[in-house]
């Protein structure tokens, strides 16, 4: 496979990030997951996954019959308690996963909004959430692929100047 943008501690690789318009699709590998890169005041929302023991973007697998957008909204709500419908498709991330280097895509949705009305309660999957500035050390491992996707998905279309999110 071609050169990767980044490789994580388990050898999973972010191979490419393709900007996409709403309704855009991929057809050379399965689209299996949706992720949310939500920025507020120069900080990226991360969740700490109990099983993987790492900070990562909210998101997860797309359920049968669900659109990538619906999966992103659902996963954000389930993992953080936040309800946010204003998500913009930033692009598709192509990964090479596992020892077999299986090729999969994730839809990455960007958001730049002021968070409202959330009292996080740890759950079976997520034990903490934070708004990370990218500098302050976090307790625990940070998923480098997700941090890079957060940066790549950030654009003037998802975070316009003056909206309170930057």
UniProtKB/TrEMBL annotation:
It holds the Pfam family NUDIX. InterPro entries: Nudix_hydrolase, NUDIX_hydrolase-like_dom_sf, NUDIX_hydrolase_CS, NUDIX_hydrolase_dom. Gene3D superfamilies: Nucleoside Triphosphate Pyrophosphohydrolase. Its cofactor is Mg(2+). Keywords: Hydrolase, Magnesium. Belongs to the Nudix hydrolase family. This is 8-oxo-dGTP diphosphatase. The lineage of its organism: Bacteria, Bacillati, Actinomycetota, Actinomycetes, Micromonosporales.
């Amino acid at each position: 496979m071609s050169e990767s943008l980044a490789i994580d501690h388990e050898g999973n690789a972010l191979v490419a990030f393709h900007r996409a318009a709403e309704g855009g699709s991929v057809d050379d590998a399965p689209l299996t997951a949706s992720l949310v890169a939500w920025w507020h005041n120069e900080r990226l929302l991360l969740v700490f996954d109990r099983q993987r023991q790492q900070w990562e973007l909210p998101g997860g697998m797309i359920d049968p019959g669900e659109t990538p957008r619906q999966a992103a909204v659902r996963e954000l709500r389930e993992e953080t308690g936040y309800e946010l419908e204003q998500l913009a498709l930033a692009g598709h991330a192509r990964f090479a996963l596992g020892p077999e280097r299986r090729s999969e895509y994730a839809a990455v949705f960007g958001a730049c909004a002021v968070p409202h009305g959330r009292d996080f309660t740890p759950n079976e999957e997520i034990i903490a959430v934070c708004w990370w500035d990218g500098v302050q050390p976090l307790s625990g491992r940070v998923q480098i692929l997700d941090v890079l996707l957060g940066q790549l998905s950030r654009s003037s279309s998802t975070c316009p100047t003056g909206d309170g999110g930057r």
